[in-house]
Each structure stands twice: as C-alpha cells, then as structure tokens.
Design brief:
Blueprint: E1 7-11, H1 15-27, E2 31-36, E3 44-45, E4 48-52, H2 57-62, E5 67-70, H3 75-88, E6 95-96, E7 101-102, E8 107-108, E9 113-114, E10 119-120, E11 125-126, E12 131-132, E13 137-138, E14 143-144, E15 149-150, E16 155-156, E17 161-162, E18 167-168, E19 173-174, E20 179-180, E21 185-186, E22 191-192, E23 201-203, E24 208-211
Length: 217
C-alpha cells in the first residue's frame, strides 16, 4: 500500500486561492485538506470545501494537518497570514507547479510558490514567501527577497535584485543587473532600465517615477 500524501491547508478563498488549489491539484504530492478564509464567502474552491474562518486553525492542526499555504496575492497580507499560520504551528512548504521550469542550483525558501509555466534560471535565489506567478521569467542569478511578487508574464533578466515586498507588474521587463528596492511597485508592461528606489512606483516605457515614498518599517 502506498503511503498517504501529506495534508495541506490553503488559507485564502479568493482568486489567488483558486490558483493555489489548482497548483496543488496538478502537483499530486499533496492531499488538499480544505480551505479557510478570514471572511468566507463561498462554500468551496474548485470543489475543495471551505472549512470556515481562521478560528478553526487549532482544531485542524490537532487533526493532523501540519502544512498550510497563505494563498493571498497582496504581499503584506500574505506575509501577515503566513505569520499567523506559523504562530498556529503550521509548516509553510515550497509549492512548485509541475509545469514550472527550474534551472540548476535554484534556491527556494520557505513558503515560496512558483506557478505554472514560470521559468527560473540557474542559481537564482527565491526568498521566503515570494510569489512567482504564471508564465513569469526569472533569469540566472536573480535574487528575490521575502514577500516579493513577480506577476504573470513579467521578465527579470540576469542578475536582477528585487527587494522585500516589491511588486513587479504583469508583463514588465527589468534590465540585467537592475535593483528594485523594497516595497517598490513596477507597473504592468513597464520597461525598467535603471535602479528603482525603495518604496517608489514606476511605470511606462522606459519606466519613469510616478511616486516616491519610504517603504513601511
């Protein structure tokens, strides 16, 4: 008899929660135990039952569900949800879609997720709770710090550095060797040719500064 797959809980019943449930269904190595949400509005996500709000976390842990994932697209909310899951006693495993491609020597930290058709080049470093979304390209030697989000179709060319909590919009392209500071926002479709300060918002081709402010502590 084959051993039973480990059980995992998904926190978040919204759009990104649906994408994570889809990843776990495709993966085959996990048993989806259910979904919880801070304010449940649906009964199920892709057929997986919503078990209630986060008040159920202790009983789910006692029932033997040891792993969970904070399936929330917003960087700050994802990090906060991960902290609650960790405090409750859940492990935060790496989630890797079977249709993603990883080069040699890629490092993936706790809670990182790589969605379908994303490609990560050799010796890239993907930090804790980073989200590399559908079809994104993270080239060789890139470094993505905690809680960053690389949106669908974005391209990070070689040696790019992305600061903690930064957001790289859908379809944006970042030139080789560029650093994007913590908490910065890169608009969809932008072409980033030079370093972006922490907390800044840039957009356009080439990307220009729209807003500059200090990132939260």
């Amino acid at each position: 008899m084959e051993p039973e797959h480990p059980a995992i809980l998904v926190l978040g019943a919204g759009g990104h929660g649906k994408a994570v449930v889809d990843l776990l269904r495709a993966h085959g190595g996990w048993r989806l135990a259910g979904v919880v949400d801070a304010a449940p509005r649906v009964a199920a996500v892709l057929g997986v039952p919503v078990l209630g709000d986060e008040s159920h976390l202790p009983e789910l842990l006692r029932a033997g569900i040891a792993a969970a994932h904070p399936a929330i697209g917003h960087n700050g909310l994802r990090l906060a949800a991960a902290a609650r899951l960790r405090a409750a006693g859940f492990a935060l495993p790496v989630l890797l879609h079977p249709a993603a491609l990883l080069g040699h020597g890629v490092a993936l930290a706790e809670g990182a997720v790589v969605m379908a058709r994303a490609t990560i080049g050799p010796e890239a470093r993907i930090g804790r709770l980073v989200l590399v979304n559908t079809g994104a390209l993270v080239e060789h030697d890139c470094e993505l710090e905690e809680g960053a989000h690389i949106a669908p179709g974005a391209v990070l060319t070689g040696g790019v550095r992305i600061g903690a909590g930064a957001m790289i919009g859908a379809g944006a392209v970042v030139r080789p060797g560029v650093t994007v500071g913590a908490g910065a926002i890169i608009g969809a479709g932008a072409a980033v040719l030079s370093d972006v300060p922490a907390g800044a918002t840039v957009a356009g081709v080439p990307a220009t500064l729209l807003r500059s402010e200090s990132p939260p502590p």
